[in-house]
Each structure stands twice: as structure tokens, then as C-alpha cells.
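Technical annex B. To support the medicinal chemistry partners, we prepared a structural model of the target in complex with phosphoenolpyruvate, based solely on the information shown next.
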Amino acid sequence: MIVVMSHLADQRDIDSVINKLKNFGFQVHLSQGVERTIIGAVGDRTQLLDVGIEAMPGVEKLVPIMRPYKLASRVFKEEDTVVQLGNGVAVGGGNLTVMAGPCAVESKEQLFQVAKEAKEAGAAVLRGGAYKPRTSPYSFQGLEEEGLKLLAEARELTGMPVVTEVMDVNTLPLVCEYADVLQIGARNMQNFFLLREVAKTDKPVLLKRSPAGTIEEWLMAAEYILAGGNPKVILCERGIKTFETFTRNTLDLTAVPVVKYLSHLPVVVDPSHAIGNWRFVQDMSRAAVAAGADGLLIEVHPNPAEALCDGPQSLTPDNFTALMQELKRIAPAMGKSIN
Ligand code: PEP
Ligand code: MN
């Protein structure tokens, strides 16, 4: 249920409503918009009608939220959420934020080369995995803390904020020491313990969609983070499982406008993991921007043929530069500027 305050309501009216809700055992979340304040009340809805909120000064109306996610819903917060990542980079609003880098951090030389070239080409955020969720236990699993340290050094070198995956609760404190943005991988979208823990941090979270996750399940996963006290959630569509086998997954671009209709959270598209083949990454990046995406997550490797992880879908720095040049022309047509 949400309590919509009148535009004439003052701070005292808002505080009285919040206090009353808390006294009746509701969890309260505030959304202070430009026009008016909205108070989200999570708890037993039948009680809300009994406690007389509707008659309180400054209250315009009570609106039930019929969807299972509440804080992630556009009904709760009408304006687009803009998530600040650090070093002046923001996701959402009128920005098109390009995050680029290798699938896995492999060495200092590899990471620094990609970081410098990605930055020169116009990327805003450096990506790179230090802990890798691999299908085979025999595949390269990541450099772990050494990888995190290299990412932090690459941030010093380029000024780009760093996004990296956190795979479990045990390594979360360590990853938080180095990362600017915590990536929740597709396989962990419904790891509710992990979601609850990242909710307790003050880091922005890039929440990837599970390959078998519906849009509602994805938004419910975001709800865990929001309800746990962390409002800085960025959603990332990275392809879902379908009957098609030519591509690694199927990029569900319908998710972009649908999620933007249902939710105020920014949406980034990862064509690299969706398609699994570098040849189509540029085409689908273009399509993602046209569909309204707030950003892109692109894998780039100096030598894809030698990559320890996801080489076939990685762009060379030259191909990434070509993509950025094209995006610089396309972004303004979508009312976006590349940050
Ligand atoms: C990745 O970003 O390298 C990754 C493992 O992605 P996903 O969780 O989407 O498979
Ligand atoms: Mn990858």
C-alpha cells in the first residue's frame, strides 16, 4: 500500500504519517518526488484501513499496489531512478553508460591495455571478473583478490569506476573494499541470502537477469535489495534460455520497455553474454539503445582468441572503438548523452 501525500503536506504531516505507520508495525519507505511525497507501507494491508491514515492531515489518498514488488514499482516512485557510481558517472536519466572490459581479469598487462583503450574509446565504467562463475570446475575460476587489486589499480590509472561480480556472502566484504559497483551474476539472481547482504552495503548493485527468470522474478529480486535498504539498483538484461541454440542465449529486448513501464529502475543491456558471438554484438547494442536501454555492458579483450573466459563473444579494442563511434551518433537520436 502507498500513502500519497498532498502537494500541500509539510514535513510535520509526513513525519506524523511515518510515525503512525511505524507504531502499527509497518515497514516504511519514503519516495520524495519533485511534485509530492509518497510513503510506501509494507505490512498487513487490512490494518492500514483501520488505523485512520486516510484522515490524517496532508494525506491525499491510499493506493493499494497490486503487484508483488512494491518499492521497485513505478507506482511507488514515478520518476526514473538515477544511480551514481562514483567519479561523476551516473546510470539512468538521460545518460547512456557504457561499461566495458574483459570477462575475467587475467593479468596486469591484459587489464590495463583494455582499460586504457576502452577509456579512450569512450567507455565510462570498467568491468572485469575476479571471481568467475564457470560451468566447469576445470575452467579458469578467476584471480580472486589479486584480480580485485588489479581492478583498483586500473581505476587509479583511468578514473573509471569498476564493476565486478560478487559470488557469495563470504567474499562480499573483500569485494566491497575494491569495487565501486557489485555485480550479481545471472546464476545468483535468486540467491536471496546474497541479495539481503548486498542490500546492507552502500554500493550500487548491477542485478543481472537469470537465464530462466521472468520479469516479475527479476523485479522481486530487486525488491529484496530495495527492501533491505539499498536503493541503488541497476537491472541488466543478459539473455534468457529459449529453444534457439545458434546464439548462446536469446536477448530479450522486450524486457527493456516492459521493465521501464513497470519500474523506475535503470536498465542496462549485456549483448555479449546474450548472443555469445562477437559478430552480432554491435548490431544488438544498437538495437538495445533504440529500445531505450540506459547503458551497455560489453566484453572487450586485447586478444579474444587467447582469452581464458568468453573469448568468442569478446570484441577487440578496435571493434569496441568502432561500436563507440556508432553509439555517439545514435545516442542523441534517443535523447541520451554518453557519459
Ligand atoms: C559476466 O558478466 O562475465 C557473467 C558471468 O555474466 P552472467 O552472470 O550474465 O552470465
Ligand atoms: Mn563473461
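Notes passed to the chemistry partners:
The chain has a mean pLDDT of 96.
The chain has two domains: 2-63, 83-338.
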